[in-house]
Specification:
The chain is mainly beta. It has four domains: about 1-270, 4-Layer Sandwich (Deoxyribonuclease I, Chain A), CATH 3.60.10; about 285-410, Galactose-binding domain-like (Jelly Rolls), CATH 2.60.120.260; about 415-550, Galactose-binding domain-like (Jelly Rolls), CATH 2.60.120.260; about 560-619, Immunoglobulins (Immunoglobulin-like, Sandwich). The N and C termini lie far apart (about 65 Å). It comes from Flavobacterium flavipigmentatum. GO terms for molecular function: 3'-5'-RNA exonuclease activity; carbohydrate binding.
């Protein structure tokens, strides 16, 4: 039955390919632009710069955030762009996530366009948390000259002090995209996500285990490394596309002149490959995990949704002589453990593995008793270093494939299970070492700031859950770090206050690790702590010692960001505020949502607002 279905679909696709103009590539210029609300922000003097950016950039589609109705109308009048959307409080009330597009080039498919709110009641004005409703607007546009169509989803996420609401918003957004009416049409996402590149929400958008799509940042497609600032000294603004190899990012840039908002607009030229020409393959890194659907070339297969752990898609409808190819970059010549995740209903399967077209080995795949009953089979494979093509040939069909994982059997890093001294990192950014008075002496890592990094090369002896103990000290505020393995987000870890820079305490959680060599990374999300060591152990039973559990995040919606700051701080609302020096002298005051602190010297200050007093570090 599966085979008949595949043959019919292939015939339909063939006939479609020779009778439609949509086989051509779709080329777009997209921009994301937080216009900034007009109240107390000098709109009259900056609005001409906003219009100039629209007119000079000439993007096909612009996703905007924060503008109210008369800002929207001014932009449309001065630029000739058409717009679509409603405001976050309904109708024209409040800010909107308006989408502007070239009406002379594109037709709006209103039946497949709309808006929804970031909340548990997405069909009415509402919110997960915070002081404001949050809305996402999406359009389905059709290019008049070719009939090619595509989606743009545009949103403004809750502020950085609401991480749970932002993560819920990301998951709702992805769910809506996955369930769009015309799933075969390409989709791009614009927005002010209020999430830095190291933030858990950004990491989830790219690699979340329960993210059925997984997105690429088009800017990082073009510039994989280096600093980028779209406002407030960080990156909150993104243009995303799915990780599908049919999406190519050609150029990307941030528009810093003229200055028209407290955000800089970000733009990208992108291509979606609709043609039969094979897309530029994405190179997979070994050691590492390769999703089966991320092939560079294939014959005779189809994709389908999977219910396996992590969900996403699997490769199915595999018959004799079907094949998949993967472009890989092998870090070093070594014997690797090759894990293959597969499922079969009622008959066993078999594959051949070829490297650069040369036969290497065969692997039998026993029956698992269900198309979504998954099992991992493990083999050994010798791989040479460098760029290669791995080909999977189907010798006997009747199975599905979900992923492959390659882990080196050569020990090259710090051993897990085992204790790792924090100072034994392979790479760091922004940290310093100091002598510790903790038991055992030696040194600890300290002077952490937000976005600092520690990396460790580790070798994991066996796949499984590990107890993870971390030894920390903090003076007066809790910290937080993100744990990544091979640049894939694992979890966020909250660290308690211990009452002193050398008052040491061990906190515990659990981490799942796979066998082999890995790069373990700590990204600092909240600073204010020292780190002495961490330990991985096999025993995952509950601890009864004096070790304390990792604390949950404190809930406080009255805050500002960034902190530390250099030029500006941004409140989650408009407040009367006063900035005091550390000696208690008033140095700044006013009422606004954005505060210019560029005149302050480096040091510690106190910010008083809304009945609260919080420390501010100027660097």
């Amino acid at each position: 039955m599966k085979k008949q279905k595949k043959s019919l679909i292939q015939l339909i696709l063939f006939l479609f390919a020779i009778t439609t103009a949509k086989s051509q590539d779709l080329n777009l210029k997209i921009m994301s632009f937080n216009i900034q609300q007009p109240f107390g922000t000098n709109w009259d003097n900056r609005k001409s710069n906003v219009a100039s950016i629209f007119n000079v950039t000439q993007a096909d589609v612009i996703g905007t955030q924060e503008a109210v109705n008369y800002q929207r109308d001014y932009i449309a009048q001065q630029t000739g762009y058409a717009w679509y959307g409603i405001a976050r409080d309904g109708g024209d009330n409040g800010e909107g996530s308006w989408i502007f597009y070239k009406a002379d080039k594109y037709s709006l498919d209103s039946s497949n366009s709309g808006s929804f709110w970031m909340s548990t009641t997405p069909n009415i004005p509402s919110r997960f948390e915070g002081d404001y409703n949050r809305i996402c607007t999406y359009v389905h546009l059709i290019e008049k000259s070719s009939g090619k169509s595509f989606y743009i989803f545009n949103s403004h996420f809750p502020t950085p002090d609401l991480p749970n609401a932002r993560l819920k918003s990301a998951k709702l957004l992805t769910e809506k995209i996955a369930n769009r009416a015309i799933k075969t049409d390409p989709v791009y996402v614009t927005g002010d996500f209020n999430s830095t590149e190291g933030d858990a929400v950004t990491i989830w958008m790219k690699n979340g285990s329960d993210n059925a799509i997984k997105f690429r940042d088009t800017y990082r497609d073009v510039y994989p490394t280096g600093n980028v600032n779209t406002g407030f000294g960080t990156k909150f603004d993104y243009i995303y596309c799915p990780t599908d190899s049919k999406y190519t990012s050609l150029t990307s840039w941030v528009i810093t002149n003229p200055v028209a908002s407290d955000h800089y607009p970000i733009a990208a030229t992108v291509r979606y490959n609709n043609s039969t020409t094979p897309p530029i393959p994405v190179t997979q890194v070994i050691p590492g995990k390769i999703e089966a659907e991320n092939y560079s070339n294939s014959f005779g297969i189809q994709l389908e949704n999977t219910t396996d752990i992590g969900q996403g898609q699997n490769v199915g409808y595999l018959d004799l002589n079907d094949w998949l190819e993967y472009k890989v970059d092998v870090a070093s010549a070594s014997k690797y453990t090759f894990d293959l995740r597969y499922a079969s209903n009622s008959e066993s399967g078999k594959i051949n593995v070829l490297i650069d077209g040369v036969y290497y080995q065969s692997t039998d795949l026993p029956i698992t008793n269900g198309w979504q009953t998954w099992q991992t089979i493990t083999k050994n494979i010798d791989l040479p270093a460098g760029l290669h093509t791995i080909k999977i040939e189907v010798v006997k069909g009747g199975f599905n494939l979900n992923w492959f994982n390659f882990s080196s059997q050569t020990t090259s890093g710090l051993s897990i299970p085992g204790k790792i001294e924090a100072e034994n990192y392979s790479m760091t950014f922004g940290t310093q070492l100091e002598n510790t008075t903790d038991t055992g002496g030696g040194q600890n890592v300290g002077y952490f700031d937000v976005n600092d990094i520690l990396e460790y090369n580790v070798t994991v002896s066996n796949t499984g859950n590990y107890n993870f103990d971390i030894r920390i000290a903090s003076l007066e505020k809790s910290g937080r770090l993100n744990l990544l393995v091979d640049n894939n987000y694992q979890k966020s870890i909250d660290l308690p206050i211990t009452g002193g820079w050398q008052n040491w305490q061990t906190s515990s959680t659990t981490v799942n690790l796979t066998q082999g060599n890995h790069k373990l990374k700590f990204e600092i999300v909240k600073d204010g702590f020292n780190l002495n060591w961490f330990n991985f152990s096999n025993n995952v039973t509950s601890k009864t010692s004096s070790s304390k559990n990792i604390v949950m995040e404190e809930s406080d919606s009255n805050t500002f960001y960034p902190n530390p700051a250099k030029d500006f701080i941004y409140f989650n609302n408009e407040y009367d505020w006063i900035v005091y020096s550390n000696a208690g002298s008033k140095v700044l005051s006013g009422r606004s949502q954005l505060v210019n602190v560029s005149s302050l010297n480096s040091g510690i200050y106190i910010v008083e607002f809304n009945g609260k007093r919080k420390k501010l570090l100027i660097n």
